[in-house]
Each structure stands twice: as C-alpha cells, then as structure tokens.
C-alpha cells in the first residue's frame, strides 16, 4: 500500500487527490513540513513524499504525480504526443509562475524566517498576480488544460488555486474561478479535501 507522507493542507493534497482519482488505497501519515518529524520521516525532510510498497521514498509532488500517471496510464497523455507537451507545459508554467511565488507567500503568511522587507513582499505578490493573469489568459476553450481529459496538470493548477484561496490570494478573475468550480465538482477532489 502506498503511504503519503505530509500534511493534507500542503502539496501533499496533490498526492492524496491523485490517489483518489486512481481509486488506489493508501495510508496518510500527517507530518507537518519543516519539523523534526519531517526529517525523521524522509531523507532531508522534504515533503510531501510517497513511500512505495517496497519502502522506496519518492519526493516532489509533481514528480510523484508524473510517476503515478505513467505507472497507471491514467490522467496523462501518451509520451511524444502534442497533448503531452501541452500538459507538461502547463505543469512547468504553473510550477514556475504560480507555485513558487505561492510558496514564498505562504512562508510570509506563516511567519517562517525573518520578516521580508516590503519590497520583497511586494515583488512576490506581483509575481503571483502575473502568474495567475498569465494562466487565466492561456486557459483553453476546453474543459481541462490539455483538452477534454482531466490530467495531472489540472491537479497542479487546481491545487494552486485551492491553496491561494486559503491565503486570500486568489484573484477575482472569473475564468480562474470557473475553472476552480469545475475542479471542485470532482469526487476525488472532495475526498482528498476531507482527508
């Protein structure tokens, strides 16, 4: 049985959601990031992590999503296809333009580390706003990011929107809010959110 290591309110939510989408039984060890318990649970303390049945520990939420998608042939497009390139492009764009600034924003909100100077805080807020604006402007005329089928790229963007909303950083853009509303209709999202 797979074991998700990490607190559900973090990027571990992506792994829980993915496993629910795939209907794969799993355990969830609720370990908070940046704690001694995290360092005790996984090498280097980097969470979230997925422990495989043989004890191998995988780290980095997007890498784990790709691993599971490829292993089970689900929520992904075939390697070498245009759709796969679109899917991967979205994952990289969201990781760079939204996920990274959102992690910095979260650190500020949680008071982790020394307080940032106002210019740094403003720069991170601007980066996040630009990332969301770029995503909104690039949303396709299809239900999901890489076409008609829901993929791991949708898990990453859906989670970032979910995360931004928790920290009152979700923009008012109607396109992003409509996309998030579609995401929230997925039973696996609801199951992961309640775990």
Structure description:
This protein is an alpha+beta fold. It folds into 2 domains: 71 residues, Glutaredoxin; 105 residues, Glutathione S-transferase Yfyf (Class Pi), Chain A, domain 2 (Up-down Bundle), CATH 1.20.1050. 57% of the residues lie in helices and 7% in strands. The protein contains 8 helices and 4 strands; from the N terminus they run βαβαββαααααα. Strands 2-1-3-4 form a 4-stranded mixed sheet, with helices on one face. α1 packs parallel to α3, α1 packs across α6 and α6 crosses α7. The longest helix has 29 residues. The protein is globular. The mean pLDDT is 93.
Name a few traits of the molecule.
Glutaredoxin; 8 helices; 57% helix; 195 residues; four-stranded mixed β-sheet; alpha+beta; Glutathione S-transferase Yfyf (Class Pi), Chain A, domain 2
The largest sheet has its strands arranged as 2-1-3-4
The stretches of 5 or more residues where confidence is low (pLDDT under 50) are none
Averaging pLDDT over every residue, what do you get? Answer: 93
Class per helix and strand makeup: alpha+beta
Q: So, CATH architecture of the largest domain?
A: Up-down Bundle
Number of strands: 4
How large a portion of the residues is in β-strands, by DSSP E? Answer: 5-15%
Give the CATH level 1 class of the largest domain: Mainly Alpha
Query: CATH fold name of the largest domain, please?
Result: Glutathione S-transferase Yfyf (Class Pi), Chain A, domain 2
Number of domains: 2
Which overall shape is indicated by the principal axes computed on the Cα atoms? globular
Q: Give the termini separation.
A: 17 Å
The arrangement of helices and strands along the chain is: EHEHEEHHHHHH
The largest pleated sheet is described as: 4 strands, mixed
Percent range of helical residues: 55-70%
GO molecular function: transferase activity
Domain GST N-terminal: 1-76
Domain GST C-terminal: 80-195
Organism: Paracoccus salipaludis
């Amino acid at each position: 049985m797979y074991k998700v290591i990490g607190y559900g309110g973090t990027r571990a939510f992506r792994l829980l959601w993915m496993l629910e989408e795939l209907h794969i039984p799993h355990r969830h060890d609720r370990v908070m990031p940046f704690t001694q318990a995290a360092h005790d649970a996984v090498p280097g303390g980097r969470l979230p992590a997925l422990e495989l049945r043989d004890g191998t520990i995988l780290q980095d939420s997007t890498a784990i999503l790709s691993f599971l998608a490829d292993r089970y042939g689900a929520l992904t497009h075939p390697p070498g296809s245009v759709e796969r390139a679109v899917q991967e492009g979205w994952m990289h764009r969201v990781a760079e333009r939204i996920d990274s600034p959102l992690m910095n924003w979260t650190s500020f909100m949680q008071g982790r580390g020394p307080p940032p100077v106002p210019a740094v805080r403003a720069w991170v807020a601007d980066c996040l706003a630009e990332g969301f604006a770029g995503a909104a402007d690039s949303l396709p005329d299809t239900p999901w990011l890489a076409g008609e089928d829901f993929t791991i790229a949708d898990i990453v963007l859906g989670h970032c929107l979910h995360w931004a909303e928790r920290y009152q950083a979700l923009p008012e853009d109607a396109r992003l809010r409509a996309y998030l509303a579609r995401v929230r209709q997925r039973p696996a999202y609801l199951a992961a959110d309640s775990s």
